[in-house]
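quick one
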Amino acid sequence: MATKQLKEFTREEVAQHNKPDDLWIIIDAKVYDVTRFKNMHPGGAFVFLDEELMGQDATETFYGLHRHEVLEKPQFIRLVVGTIKDEKPQIVGRVPGALSKVPYAEPTWLSEGYHSPYFTESHKRFQKVVRKFVDEVVFPDAMAREEDGKRPSLSVIEKMAELNIHAMRMGPGKHLKGLKLMNGLITPEEFDYFHELIINQEFARHGQRGYGDGLNAGGIIGLPPVMNFGSPEIRDKVVPEVFSGKKFICLAISEAFAGSDVQGLKTYAKKTEDGKFWIVNGTKKWITNGTFCDYFTVGCRTDDGFTVILVERGEGVETKPIKTAYSPTAGTSYITFENVKVPVENTLGPEGGGIFVMLSNFNHERWMICCSAVLAQRLCVEECLKWTNQRKAFGKPLNSQAVVRSKIAGMIARLESGQAWLENITHQMNNMSYKEQSKYLAGPIGLLKMYLTRSGQDTARDAVQIFGGRGITRTGMGKYIEHYHRAAPFDAILGGAEDVLGDLGVRQAIRNMPKNARL
Ligand code: HEM
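structure w/ protoporphyrin IX containing FE:
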Protein backbone atom coordinates (compact mmCIF):
# COMPACT_ATOMS: atom_id res chain seq x y z
CA MET A 1 0.00 0.00 0.00
CA ALA A 2 1.40 3.41 -0.98
CA THR A 3 1.97 5.70 2.00
CA LYS A 4 0.31 9.07 1.83
CA GLN A 5 2.82 11.82 1.02
CA LEU A 6 2.49 14.19 3.97
CA LYS A 7 2.83 17.95 3.61
CA GLU A 8 5.33 19.82 5.75
CA PHE A 9 4.28 22.83 7.82
CA THR A 10 6.10 25.27 10.02
CA ARG A 11 4.82 25.68 13.59
CA GLU A 12 3.74 29.21 12.61
CA GLU A 13 1.57 27.85 9.79
CA VAL A 14 -0.10 25.37 12.12
CA ALA A 15 -0.75 28.16 14.63
CA GLN A 16 -3.07 29.83 12.06
CA HIS A 17 -5.55 26.94 12.48
CA ASN A 18 -6.61 27.96 15.94
CA LYS A 19 -10.38 28.32 15.73
CA PRO A 20 -13.17 25.86 16.55
CA ASP A 21 -14.12 25.63 12.86
CA ASP A 22 -10.50 25.28 11.73
CA LEU A 23 -8.61 23.43 14.43
CA TRP A 24 -5.23 21.77 14.14
CA ILE A 25 -2.91 20.44 16.85
CA ILE A 26 0.61 19.00 16.87
CA ILE A 27 1.43 15.69 18.54
CA ASP A 28 5.01 14.42 18.31
CA ALA A 29 5.85 16.47 15.19
CA LYS A 30 2.70 15.31 13.37
CA VAL A 31 -0.10 17.72 12.51
CA TYR A 32 -3.68 16.59 13.22
CA ASP A 33 -6.79 18.29 11.83
CA VAL A 34 -9.32 17.77 14.62
CA THR A 35 -11.92 20.26 13.39
CA ARG A 36 -14.58 17.60 12.76
CA PHE A 37 -13.15 14.93 15.03
CA LYS A 38 -13.53 17.09 18.14
CA ASN A 39 -17.29 16.50 18.13
CA MET A 40 -16.74 12.72 18.16
CA HIS A 41 -13.83 12.77 20.60
CA PRO A 42 -14.48 10.36 23.52
CA GLY A 43 -13.02 12.94 25.90
CA GLY A 44 -15.44 15.60 24.56
CA ALA A 45 -15.06 18.62 22.24
CA PHE A 46 -14.57 21.02 25.11
CA VAL A 47 -11.00 19.90 25.81
CA PHE A 48 -9.88 21.10 22.37
CA LEU A 49 -11.32 24.58 22.76
CA ASP A 50 -8.43 25.81 24.84
CA GLU A 51 -6.47 28.86 23.68
CA GLU A 52 -3.24 27.15 24.70
CA LEU A 53 -4.03 24.12 22.60
CA MET A 54 -5.67 25.28 19.36
CA GLY A 55 -2.96 25.41 16.68
CA GLN A 56 -0.35 24.47 19.28
CA ASP A 57 1.77 21.54 20.36
CA ALA A 58 -0.38 19.13 22.43
CA THR A 59 2.20 16.33 22.81
CA GLU A 60 2.62 16.56 26.56
CA THR A 61 -1.10 17.03 27.21
CA PHE A 62 -1.95 14.12 24.90
CA TYR A 63 0.45 11.66 26.54
CA GLY A 64 -0.78 12.62 29.98
CA LEU A 65 -4.19 11.29 28.95
CA HIS A 66 -3.80 8.65 26.24
CA ARG A 67 -1.74 5.60 25.40
CA HIS A 68 0.33 5.91 22.23
CA GLU A 69 -1.65 3.08 20.63
CA VAL A 70 -4.63 5.48 20.26
CA LEU A 71 -2.71 7.29 17.52
CA GLU A 72 -1.95 4.02 15.73
CA LYS A 73 -5.62 3.26 15.10
CA PRO A 74 -6.53 3.69 11.40
CA GLN A 75 -9.44 6.04 12.16
CA PHE A 76 -7.06 8.42 13.94
CA ILE A 77 -4.11 8.03 11.55
CA ARG A 78 -6.51 9.57 9.03
CA LEU A 79 -6.55 12.80 11.03
CA VAL A 80 -2.88 13.46 10.22
CA VAL A 81 -2.53 16.19 7.59
CA GLY A 82 1.21 16.75 7.73
CA THR A 83 4.41 16.92 9.71
CA ILE A 84 6.47 19.75 11.16
CA LYS A 85 9.27 20.91 8.90
CA ASP A 86 12.75 19.71 9.96
CA GLU A 87 11.34 17.65 12.87
CA LYS A 88 10.95 13.90 13.20
CA PRO A 89 8.45 11.99 15.37
CA GLN A 90 10.29 10.60 18.41
CA ILE A 91 7.75 8.30 20.03
CA VAL A 92 7.72 4.69 18.91
CA GLY A 93 4.89 2.26 19.51
CA ARG A 94 5.05 -1.50 19.75
CA VAL A 95 7.51 -2.85 17.15
CA PRO A 96 6.92 -6.60 16.63
CA GLY A 97 9.83 -8.59 17.99
CA ALA A 98 11.68 -5.59 19.44
CA LEU A 99 13.15 -5.41 22.94
CA SER A 100 12.05 -2.60 25.22
CA LYS A 101 14.63 0.01 26.13
CA VAL A 102 12.79 0.95 29.33
CA PRO A 103 14.98 -0.05 32.31
CA TYR A 104 13.83 -3.31 33.95
CA ALA A 105 11.32 -3.92 31.15
CA GLU A 106 13.51 -6.84 30.05
CA PRO A 107 15.34 -9.39 32.22
CA THR A 108 19.06 -8.68 32.55
CA TRP A 109 19.96 -11.42 30.08
CA LEU A 110 18.15 -9.41 27.40
CA SER A 111 19.38 -6.00 28.53
CA GLU A 112 22.28 -4.24 26.89
CA GLY A 113 25.50 -4.31 28.89
CA TYR A 114 24.52 -7.17 31.22
CA HIS A 115 25.60 -10.81 31.35
CA SER A 116 24.03 -14.11 32.33
CA PRO A 117 25.54 -17.42 33.40
CA TYR A 118 22.52 -19.34 32.07
CA PHE A 119 21.36 -18.10 28.69
CA THR A 120 23.22 -19.13 25.53
CA GLU A 121 23.11 -18.04 21.89
CA SER A 122 20.49 -20.73 21.31
CA HIS A 123 18.21 -19.12 23.91
CA LYS A 124 18.77 -15.67 22.43
CA ARG A 125 17.90 -16.84 18.92
CA PHE A 126 14.87 -18.63 20.24
CA GLN A 127 13.64 -15.64 22.25
CA LYS A 128 13.73 -13.38 19.19
CA VAL A 129 11.52 -15.67 17.16
CA VAL A 130 9.08 -16.36 20.00
CA ARG A 131 8.72 -12.63 20.76
CA LYS A 132 7.96 -11.86 17.12
CA PHE A 133 5.41 -14.65 16.97
CA VAL A 134 3.71 -13.43 20.15
CA ASP A 135 3.68 -9.80 18.98
CA GLU A 136 2.35 -10.59 15.53
CA VAL A 137 0.05 -13.54 16.10
CA VAL A 138 -0.88 -13.78 19.78
CA PHE A 139 -1.04 -10.14 20.91
CA PRO A 140 -3.78 -8.95 18.49
CA ASP A 141 -5.88 -12.02 19.24
CA ALA A 142 -5.43 -11.57 23.00
CA MET A 143 -6.71 -8.00 22.78
CA ALA A 144 -9.66 -8.91 20.57
CA ARG A 145 -10.72 -11.95 22.58
CA GLU A 146 -10.48 -10.15 25.94
CA GLU A 147 -12.83 -7.65 24.34
CA ASP A 148 -15.40 -10.13 23.01
CA GLY A 149 -14.87 -12.81 25.66
CA LYS A 150 -14.50 -15.65 23.18
CA ARG A 151 -11.92 -18.41 23.49
CA PRO A 152 -8.53 -17.89 21.76
CA SER A 153 -8.90 -18.17 17.99
CA LEU A 154 -8.27 -21.54 16.43
CA SER A 155 -6.03 -19.84 13.86
CA VAL A 156 -3.62 -18.98 16.72
CA ILE A 157 -3.77 -22.54 18.08
CA GLU A 158 -3.02 -23.87 14.58
CA LYS A 159 -0.07 -21.54 14.04
CA MET A 160 1.32 -22.58 17.42
CA ALA A 161 0.91 -26.22 16.38
CA GLU A 162 2.80 -25.65 13.13
CA LEU A 163 5.82 -24.54 15.18
CA ASN A 164 5.23 -27.32 17.75
CA ILE A 165 4.77 -24.79 20.54
CA HIS A 166 2.08 -26.92 22.24
CA ALA A 167 4.60 -29.76 22.50
CA MET A 168 7.39 -27.48 23.75
CA ARG A 169 5.14 -26.13 26.49
CA MET A 170 5.20 -29.61 28.06
CA GLY A 171 8.91 -29.11 28.72
CA PRO A 172 11.99 -30.92 27.47
CA GLY A 173 11.68 -34.68 27.05
CA LYS A 174 11.15 -37.61 24.77
CA HIS A 175 7.78 -36.27 23.57
CA LEU A 176 9.78 -33.78 21.43
CA LYS A 177 11.71 -36.50 19.63
CA GLY A 178 11.40 -36.19 15.86
CA LEU A 179 9.51 -32.89 16.01
CA LYS A 180 10.61 -29.83 14.07
CA LEU A 181 10.76 -27.07 16.67
CA MET A 182 10.18 -23.47 15.62
CA ASN A 183 10.67 -24.40 11.96
CA GLY A 184 13.91 -26.19 12.83
CA LEU A 185 15.43 -23.25 14.71
CA ILE A 186 16.48 -25.59 17.52
CA THR A 187 16.70 -29.35 17.88
CA PRO A 188 14.65 -31.38 20.37
CA GLU A 189 17.91 -32.37 22.09
CA GLU A 190 18.88 -28.72 22.50
CA PHE A 191 15.53 -27.69 23.98
CA ASP A 192 15.87 -27.18 27.73
CA TYR A 193 13.96 -25.57 30.59
CA PHE A 194 15.36 -22.13 29.72
CA HIS A 195 13.77 -22.41 26.27
CA GLU A 196 10.54 -23.32 27.98
CA LEU A 197 10.94 -20.41 30.42
CA ILE A 198 11.26 -18.14 27.38
CA ILE A 199 7.99 -19.47 25.93
CA ASN A 200 6.21 -19.03 29.27
CA GLN A 201 7.45 -15.49 29.74
CA GLU A 202 7.04 -14.31 26.15
CA PHE A 203 3.52 -15.73 25.99
CA ALA A 204 2.60 -13.66 29.06
CA ARG A 205 3.70 -10.39 27.46
CA HIS A 206 0.25 -9.50 26.16
CA GLY A 207 -0.74 -9.02 29.81
CA GLN A 208 -4.14 -10.68 29.38
CA ARG A 209 -4.18 -13.30 32.12
CA GLY A 210 -7.52 -14.90 31.23
CA TYR A 211 -6.59 -15.23 27.56
CA GLY A 212 -3.24 -16.69 28.60
CA ASP A 213 -5.07 -19.48 30.40
CA GLY A 214 -7.45 -19.88 27.48
CA LEU A 215 -4.45 -20.61 25.28
CA ASN A 216 -4.22 -24.25 26.30
CA ALA A 217 -3.31 -23.86 29.98
CA GLY A 218 -5.66 -26.78 30.62
CA GLY A 219 -3.64 -28.90 28.21
CA ILE A 220 -0.35 -28.15 29.92
CA ILE A 221 -1.65 -29.69 33.14
CA GLY A 222 -4.17 -32.11 31.68
CA LEU A 223 -1.94 -33.84 29.13
CA PRO A 224 1.09 -34.90 31.25
CA PRO A 225 -0.89 -37.62 33.09
CA VAL A 226 -1.76 -39.05 29.65
CA MET A 227 1.85 -38.72 28.43
CA ASN A 228 3.32 -40.30 31.55
CA PHE A 229 0.66 -42.75 32.73
CA GLY A 230 -1.61 -43.49 29.75
CA SER A 231 -1.47 -46.82 27.91
CA PRO A 232 0.56 -46.67 24.66
CA GLU A 233 -2.71 -46.78 22.64
CA ILE A 234 -4.24 -43.85 24.52
CA ARG A 235 -0.98 -41.90 24.42
CA ASP A 236 -0.45 -42.42 20.71
CA LYS A 237 -3.96 -41.20 19.97
CA VAL A 238 -4.41 -38.28 22.37
CA VAL A 239 -0.93 -36.69 22.50
CA PRO A 240 -0.63 -35.98 18.73
CA GLU A 241 -4.22 -34.70 18.66
CA VAL A 242 -3.42 -32.14 21.35
CA PHE A 243 0.02 -31.22 19.98
CA SER A 244 -1.53 -30.57 16.57
CA GLY A 245 -4.18 -28.30 18.10
CA LYS A 246 -7.01 -30.48 16.80
CA LYS A 247 -8.24 -31.55 20.24
CA PHE A 248 -8.19 -29.96 23.69
CA ILE A 249 -7.70 -31.52 27.09
CA CYS A 250 -7.98 -30.19 30.65
CA LEU A 251 -7.34 -31.30 34.21
CA ALA A 252 -10.49 -31.81 36.27
CA ILE A 253 -9.70 -32.29 39.95
CA SER A 254 -11.26 -29.56 42.12
CA GLU A 255 -14.91 -29.64 43.11
CA ALA A 256 -17.29 -27.42 44.97
CA PHE A 257 -16.86 -29.91 47.84
CA ALA A 258 -13.08 -30.02 47.96
CA GLY A 259 -9.87 -28.88 46.30
CA SER A 260 -6.51 -30.03 47.63
CA ASP A 261 -8.30 -32.31 50.13
CA VAL A 262 -8.77 -35.17 47.69
CA GLN A 263 -10.34 -37.32 50.39
CA GLY A 264 -13.23 -34.88 50.28
CA LEU A 265 -13.84 -35.26 46.54
CA LYS A 266 -17.17 -36.78 45.63
CA THR A 267 -16.85 -37.63 41.92
CA TYR A 268 -17.08 -41.41 41.92
CA ALA A 269 -16.08 -43.99 39.34
CA LYS A 270 -17.55 -47.48 39.73
CA LYS A 271 -16.64 -50.42 37.53
CA THR A 272 -19.32 -52.25 35.56
CA GLU A 273 -19.84 -55.88 36.54
CA ASP A 274 -17.85 -57.16 33.59
CA GLY A 275 -15.00 -54.88 34.70
CA LYS A 276 -14.71 -53.32 31.24
CA PHE A 277 -15.97 -49.82 31.97
CA TRP A 278 -15.98 -47.11 34.58
CA ILE A 279 -19.26 -45.36 35.26
CA VAL A 280 -18.39 -41.83 36.35
CA ASN A 281 -20.75 -39.60 38.34
CA GLY A 282 -20.03 -36.26 39.94
CA THR A 283 -19.17 -32.62 39.42
CA LYS A 284 -16.02 -30.52 38.97
CA LYS A 285 -15.58 -26.81 39.44
CA TRP A 286 -13.15 -24.08 38.22
CA ILE A 287 -11.85 -26.28 35.42
CA THR A 288 -9.72 -24.15 33.08
CA ASN A 289 -10.56 -24.66 29.37
CA GLY A 290 -13.36 -27.06 30.36
CA THR A 291 -16.00 -25.27 28.27
CA PHE A 292 -14.27 -26.23 25.03
CA CYS A 293 -12.30 -29.38 25.89
CA ASP A 294 -12.65 -32.73 24.17
CA TYR A 295 -10.88 -34.67 26.92
CA PHE A 296 -10.95 -34.38 30.71
CA THR A 297 -8.27 -35.82 32.99
CA VAL A 298 -10.53 -36.52 35.94
CA GLY A 299 -9.67 -37.23 39.56
CA CYS A 300 -12.19 -39.80 40.85
CA ARG A 301 -12.83 -41.68 44.03
CA THR A 302 -12.90 -45.41 43.32
CA ASP A 303 -13.27 -48.52 45.47
CA ASP A 304 -9.45 -48.60 45.74
CA GLY A 305 -9.04 -44.97 46.75
CA PHE A 306 -8.30 -42.18 44.31
CA THR A 307 -7.84 -42.84 40.59
CA VAL A 308 -7.24 -40.60 37.57
CA ILE A 309 -9.35 -41.41 34.51
CA LEU A 310 -9.37 -39.90 31.02
CA VAL A 311 -12.96 -39.01 30.09
CA GLU A 312 -13.92 -38.05 26.56
CA ARG A 313 -16.67 -35.50 25.93
CA GLY A 314 -19.85 -37.38 25.07
CA GLU A 315 -23.09 -38.60 26.56
CA GLY A 316 -23.48 -37.56 30.19
CA VAL A 317 -20.76 -34.87 30.10
CA GLU A 318 -21.99 -31.30 30.46
CA THR A 319 -19.86 -28.17 30.80
CA LYS A 320 -21.02 -24.68 31.56
CA PRO A 321 -19.03 -21.47 31.99
CA ILE A 322 -18.23 -19.97 35.39
CA LYS A 323 -17.93 -16.20 35.56
CA THR A 324 -14.58 -15.44 37.16
CA ALA A 325 -12.75 -12.20 37.87
CA TYR A 326 -10.47 -12.44 34.86
CA SER A 327 -12.26 -13.30 31.61
CA PRO A 328 -14.40 -15.90 29.83
CA THR A 329 -11.56 -16.49 27.33
CA ALA A 330 -10.09 -18.98 29.82
CA GLY A 331 -13.12 -21.24 29.43
CA THR A 332 -13.39 -21.78 33.20
CA SER A 333 -16.13 -24.33 33.73
CA TYR A 334 -18.45 -26.25 35.97
CA ILE A 335 -18.65 -29.85 34.80
CA THR A 336 -21.21 -32.54 35.49
CA PHE A 337 -20.63 -36.22 34.79
CA GLU A 338 -23.80 -38.27 34.80
CA ASN A 339 -23.41 -42.01 34.32
CA VAL A 340 -20.56 -41.45 31.88
CA LYS A 341 -19.31 -44.78 30.51
CA VAL A 342 -15.54 -44.86 30.10
CA PRO A 343 -13.41 -47.86 28.98
CA VAL A 344 -11.10 -49.04 31.80
CA GLU A 345 -8.22 -48.66 29.33
CA ASN A 346 -8.60 -44.92 29.96
CA THR A 347 -7.29 -45.30 33.50
CA LEU A 348 -4.17 -43.17 33.92
CA GLY A 349 -1.71 -44.84 36.26
CA PRO A 350 -2.55 -47.47 38.84
CA GLU A 351 -6.05 -47.79 40.27
CA GLY A 352 -5.97 -46.17 43.68
CA GLY A 353 -2.66 -44.50 42.76
CA GLY A 354 -4.15 -41.24 41.55
CA ILE A 355 -2.40 -39.08 44.12
CA PHE A 356 0.96 -40.01 42.67
CA VAL A 357 -0.29 -39.26 39.13
CA MET A 358 -1.47 -35.83 40.21
CA LEU A 359 1.55 -34.95 42.33
CA SER A 360 3.94 -35.89 39.56
CA ASN A 361 3.13 -32.77 37.60
CA PHE A 362 2.72 -30.20 40.35
CA ASN A 363 6.29 -28.89 40.32
CA HIS A 364 6.25 -28.22 36.60
CA GLU A 365 2.87 -26.50 36.78
CA ARG A 366 3.98 -24.29 39.67
CA TRP A 367 7.28 -23.44 38.02
CA MET A 368 5.37 -22.48 34.87
CA ILE A 369 3.09 -20.17 36.85
CA CYS A 370 6.22 -18.63 38.42
CA CYS A 371 7.58 -17.83 34.94
CA SER A 372 4.50 -15.92 33.86
CA ALA A 373 3.96 -14.35 37.30
CA VAL A 374 7.42 -12.73 37.15
CA LEU A 375 6.75 -11.48 33.65
CA ALA A 376 3.44 -9.95 34.74
CA GLN A 377 5.32 -7.99 37.42
CA ARG A 378 7.80 -6.85 34.79
CA LEU A 379 5.03 -5.48 32.58
CA CYS A 380 3.66 -3.68 35.59
CA VAL A 381 7.04 -2.05 36.31
CA GLU A 382 7.36 -0.95 32.68
CA GLU A 383 3.86 0.54 32.73
CA CYS A 384 4.59 2.40 35.98
CA LEU A 385 7.95 3.73 34.77
CA LYS A 386 6.37 5.05 31.56
CA TRP A 387 3.28 6.50 33.23
CA THR A 388 5.15 8.30 36.01
CA ASN A 389 7.51 9.74 33.41
CA GLN A 390 4.85 11.09 31.07
CA ARG A 391 2.14 12.10 33.53
CA LYS A 392 2.50 15.44 35.25
CA ALA A 393 0.99 16.52 38.54
CA PHE A 394 1.64 19.83 40.29
CA GLY A 395 3.64 20.88 37.22
CA LYS A 396 6.16 18.03 37.52
CA PRO A 397 6.32 14.43 36.31
CA LEU A 398 4.87 11.98 38.82
CA ASN A 399 8.29 10.38 39.18
CA SER A 400 9.60 13.53 40.83
CA GLN A 401 7.66 12.51 43.96
CA ALA A 402 9.75 10.47 46.40
CA VAL A 403 6.74 8.44 47.51
CA VAL A 404 6.14 7.31 43.92
CA ARG A 405 9.80 6.41 43.41
CA SER A 406 9.77 4.47 46.66
CA LYS A 407 6.85 2.33 45.44
CA ILE A 408 8.66 1.65 42.15
CA ALA A 409 11.85 0.75 44.04
CA GLY A 410 9.93 -1.95 45.91
CA MET A 411 8.42 -3.24 42.68
CA ILE A 412 11.80 -3.53 40.95
CA ALA A 413 13.45 -5.23 43.92
CA ARG A 414 10.65 -7.80 44.18
CA LEU A 415 10.65 -8.40 40.43
CA GLU A 416 14.39 -8.87 40.01
CA SER A 417 14.80 -11.07 43.08
CA GLY A 418 11.94 -13.22 41.76
CA GLN A 419 13.52 -13.53 38.32
CA ALA A 420 16.94 -14.35 39.78
CA TRP A 421 15.49 -17.11 42.01
CA LEU A 422 13.47 -18.44 39.08
CA GLU A 423 16.56 -18.62 36.86
CA ASN A 424 18.46 -20.43 39.61
CA ILE A 425 15.68 -23.01 40.00
CA THR A 426 15.46 -23.41 36.21
CA HIS A 427 19.20 -24.11 36.13
CA GLN A 428 18.71 -26.81 38.79
CA MET A 429 15.90 -28.35 36.73
CA ASN A 430 18.21 -28.52 33.73
CA ASN A 431 20.75 -30.43 35.77
CA MET A 432 18.54 -32.78 37.77
CA SER A 433 16.78 -35.99 36.94
CA TYR A 434 13.01 -36.00 37.38
CA LYS A 435 13.43 -37.80 40.70
CA GLU A 436 15.99 -35.30 41.93
CA GLN A 437 13.70 -32.44 40.95
CA SER A 438 10.93 -33.91 43.10
CA LYS A 439 13.32 -34.38 46.00
CA TYR A 440 15.15 -31.06 45.91
CA LEU A 441 12.85 -28.60 44.18
CA ALA A 442 9.29 -29.13 45.43
CA GLY A 443 10.02 -26.93 48.45
CA PRO A 444 11.90 -24.13 46.65
CA ILE A 445 9.33 -23.99 43.83
CA GLY A 446 6.51 -23.79 46.40
CA LEU A 447 8.32 -20.99 48.23
CA LEU A 448 9.11 -19.14 45.01
CA LYS A 449 5.48 -19.30 43.92
CA MET A 450 4.36 -18.05 47.31
CA TYR A 451 6.88 -15.21 47.13
CA LEU A 452 5.90 -14.21 43.60
CA THR A 453 2.18 -14.23 44.19
CA ARG A 454 2.49 -12.22 47.41
CA SER A 455 4.90 -9.76 45.88
CA GLY A 456 2.74 -9.64 42.72
CA GLN A 457 -0.26 -8.58 44.74
CA ASP A 458 1.83 -5.94 46.55
CA THR A 459 3.01 -4.67 43.18
CA ALA A 460 -0.53 -4.66 41.77
CA ARG A 461 -1.77 -2.66 44.74
CA ASP A 462 1.07 -0.13 44.49
CA ALA A 463 0.58 0.21 40.74
CA VAL A 464 -3.10 1.01 41.24
CA GLN A 465 -2.11 3.74 43.70
CA ILE A 466 0.32 5.15 41.15
CA PHE A 467 -2.27 5.08 38.34
CA GLY A 468 -5.10 6.34 40.55
CA GLY A 469 -8.56 6.16 38.94
CA ARG A 470 -7.00 4.81 35.75
CA GLY A 471 -5.73 1.79 37.65
CA ILE A 472 -9.32 0.74 38.25
CA THR A 473 -10.57 1.54 34.74
CA ARG A 474 -10.73 -1.17 32.10
CA THR A 475 -9.89 1.05 29.14
CA GLY A 476 -7.32 3.75 28.51
CA MET A 477 -4.05 4.49 30.27
CA GLY A 478 -4.32 2.04 33.15
CA LYS A 479 -5.91 -0.88 31.33
CA TYR A 480 -3.02 -3.30 31.94
CA ILE A 481 -2.77 -2.32 35.59
CA GLU A 482 -6.50 -2.74 36.10
CA HIS A 483 -6.32 -6.19 34.51
CA TYR A 484 -3.27 -7.20 36.50
CA HIS A 485 -4.79 -6.05 39.78
CA ARG A 486 -7.90 -8.10 39.01
CA ALA A 487 -6.00 -11.15 37.80
CA ALA A 488 -2.99 -11.30 40.17
CA PRO A 489 -4.88 -13.35 42.81
CA PHE A 490 -5.33 -16.16 40.24
CA ASP A 491 -1.65 -17.04 40.45
CA ALA A 492 -2.00 -17.19 44.23
CA ILE A 493 -4.74 -19.83 43.97
CA LEU A 494 -4.14 -21.91 40.83
CA GLY A 495 -1.64 -24.72 41.14
CA GLY A 496 -1.69 -24.57 44.95
CA ALA A 497 -2.73 -21.80 47.32
CA GLU A 498 -0.09 -19.36 48.51
CA ASP A 499 -0.02 -20.33 52.19
CA VAL A 500 -0.13 -24.05 51.47
CA LEU A 501 2.89 -23.74 49.17
CA GLY A 502 4.86 -21.65 51.65
CA ASP A 503 4.14 -24.25 54.28
CA LEU A 504 5.21 -27.03 51.94
CA GLY A 505 8.58 -25.32 51.48
CA VAL A 506 9.16 -24.94 55.21
CA ARG A 507 7.99 -28.46 56.02
CA GLN A 508 10.45 -29.81 53.46
CA ALA A 509 13.22 -27.77 55.10
CA ILE A 510 12.25 -29.08 58.56
CA ARG A 511 12.33 -32.66 57.25
CA ASN A 512 15.85 -32.11 55.97
CA MET A 513 17.21 -30.59 59.18
CA PRO A 514 20.41 -32.38 60.24
CA LYS A 515 19.84 -34.31 63.46
CA ASN A 516 22.84 -32.69 65.11
CA ALA A 517 22.03 -29.06 64.25
CA ARG A 518 21.97 -26.86 67.36
CA LEU A 519 22.32 -23.13 67.97
C1 HEM B 1 -5.61 13.31 17.58
C2 HEM B 1 -5.84 13.62 18.82
C3 HEM B 1 -6.66 12.83 19.76
C4 HEM B 1 -7.26 11.61 19.60
C5 HEM B 1 -7.22 10.69 18.41
C6 HEM B 1 -7.93 11.30 20.86
C7 HEM B 1 -8.63 10.15 21.10
C8 HEM B 1 -9.15 9.81 22.32
C9 HEM B 1 -9.72 8.53 22.66
C10 HEM B 1 -9.82 7.33 21.73
C11 HEM B 1 -10.11 8.59 23.93
C12 HEM B 1 -10.76 7.44 24.74
C13 HEM B 1 -9.87 6.98 25.83
C14 HEM B 1 -8.66 6.17 25.42
O1 HEM B 1 -8.84 5.18 24.69
O2 HEM B 1 -7.54 6.49 25.84
C15 HEM B 1 -9.81 9.90 24.42
C16 HEM B 1 -10.07 10.32 25.69
C17 HEM B 1 -9.74 11.57 26.16
N1 HEM B 1 -9.09 12.57 25.48
FE1 HEM B 1 -8.46 12.48 23.59
N2 HEM B 1 -7.74 12.34 21.70
C18 HEM B 1 -6.97 13.29 21.08
C19 HEM B 1 -6.52 14.47 21.59
C20 HEM B 1 -6.80 14.93 22.84
C21 HEM B 1 -6.30 16.14 23.41
C22 HEM B 1 -5.34 17.09 22.73
C23 HEM B 1 -6.81 16.23 24.66
C24 HEM B 1 -6.59 17.27 25.74
C25 HEM B 1 -6.68 18.47 25.70
C26 HEM B 1 -7.65 15.10 24.88
C27 HEM B 1 -8.32 14.82 26.03
C28 HEM B 1 -8.96 13.65 26.32
C29 HEM B 1 -9.55 13.35 27.60
C30 HEM B 1 -9.63 14.29 28.81
C31 HEM B 1 -10.05 12.06 27.49
C32 HEM B 1 -10.71 11.23 28.59
C33 HEM B 1 -9.56 10.51 29.27
C34 HEM B 1 -9.93 9.57 30.36
O3 HEM B 1 -11.07 9.09 30.39
O4 HEM B 1 -9.05 9.30 31.18
N3 HEM B 1 -7.61 14.31 23.75
N4 HEM B 1 -9.23 10.61 23.42
